[in-house]
Amino acid sequence: GRTAALIPAAGFGTRLGRGPKAFVEVAGQTLLARSVAALSPHVDEVLVALPVGAELPPGVDARAIVGGETRQESVRRLLHATTAERVLIHDAARPFLPEGVIHALLEAVLDTGAATAALPLADTLVRAGIGDQAGDTGCWGELVSRENLWAVQTPQAFLREILLDAHAHARSEGHTATDDAGLVARLGGRVRLVPGDARLFKVTAPGDLALAEALARMWDG
Ligand code: C5P
């Protein structure tokens, strides 16, 4: 069966403050171009969901569709725009995607039909309590055990039928989630956790761009 890479890239990048995030450049290449280049050698086709009115940056070899108002809606539209048996969903905002993670996901999906890259948490976790003053960042509330806690990344791999079904359920129930594996798990589907990579961090806040610039120098070698 065929495999498609589906890239939601229709966000407005509000937290980053640099315009639509997928079009932000790191060391001379857009986040979107980097994500597409990492995935295309491993799949039969690449589909990208773009903001209304946007076009693919020059040199990006993919098929573009118009995204939705939420990430979930963008992915739903991408799922309907392909007939591939397997799909790899990947955020344009995670431009540094090691090849080994892609291989591990494509293998895991043969087993369970759903798999995601994820990283075991390394930091101590705390739930913030009420702050001392209005507007401060809060005080130490309670410790949260990090045992068995993983931070979920992308790519996420699915048999397309499984994810289509999960999206249809979520839509009819008005449920929204920040990722796709969560929609499958919610229906009782098994989702394999595949070790991700620290370099797969999502470029979200302005400080992440400095990190991405530094990483790009090594990555582009
Ligand atoms: O905003 P956030 O960082 O969670 O976005 C994750 C990914 O989803 C980004 O690649 C963004 O472009 C994409 N997205 C989308 N459609 C939206 C919102 C976000 O494709 N309406």
Describe this structure in words.
This is 2-C-methyl-D-erythritol 4-phosphate cytidylyltransferase. Pathway: Isoprenoid biosynthesis; isopentenyl diphosphate biosynthesis via DXP pathway; isopentenyl diphosphate from 1-deoxy-D-xylulose 5-phosphate: step 2/6. With 221 residues, the chain is of the alpha/beta class. It is built from 6 helices and 11 strands. It is globular. The mean pLDDT is 96. Cytidine-5'-monophosphate binds next to helix 2.
Give the helix/strand layout.
Blueprint: E1 3-8, E2 25-26, E3 29-30, H1 31-39, E4 45-50, E5 63-66, H2 71-80, E6 86-89, H3 99-112, E7 114-120, E8 125-129, E9 139-144, E10 150-159, H4 160-173, H5 181-186, E11 192-195, H6 206-219
Parallel strand pairs: 1-4, 1-6, 4-5, 7-11
Antiparallel strand pairs: 2-3, 6-10, 7-10, 8-9
Residues 8-11, 21-22, 49, 67-71, 74, 91-93, 202, 204 line the site of cytidine-5'-monophosphate (C5P).
Site (Transition state stabilizer): 15, 21
Protein name: 2-C-methyl-D-erythritol 4-phosphate cytidylyltransferase
Keywords: Isoprene biosynthesis, Nucleotidyltransferase, Transferase
| Low-pLDDT segments | none
Q: Globular, elongated, flat, extended or rod-shaped: what is the shape? A: globular
Q: Strand content of the residues, in percent?
A: 25-35%
Can you count the beta strands? 11
Mean pLDDT: 96
Helix content range:
25-40%
- What's the order of the H and E elements? EEEHEEHEHEEEEHHEH
Number of helices: 6
Q: SS-based structural class? A: alpha/beta
Largest sheet: 7 strands, mixed
Terminal CA distance: 34 Å
Question: Which small molecules are bound?
Answer: cytidine-5'-monophosphate
Strand order of the largest sheet: 5-4-1-6-10-7-11
Rounded to the nearest angstrom, the radius of gyration is: 18 Å
Instruction: Determine the oligomeric state from the structure.
Output: single chain
EC number: 2.7.7.60
Site (Positions MEP for the nucleophilic attack): 146, 202
Keywords: Isoprene biosynthesis, Nucleotidyltransferase, Transferase
Function: Catalyzes the formation of 4-diphosphocytidyl-2-C-methyl-D-erythritol from CTP and 2-C-methyl-D-erythritol 4-phosphate (MEP).
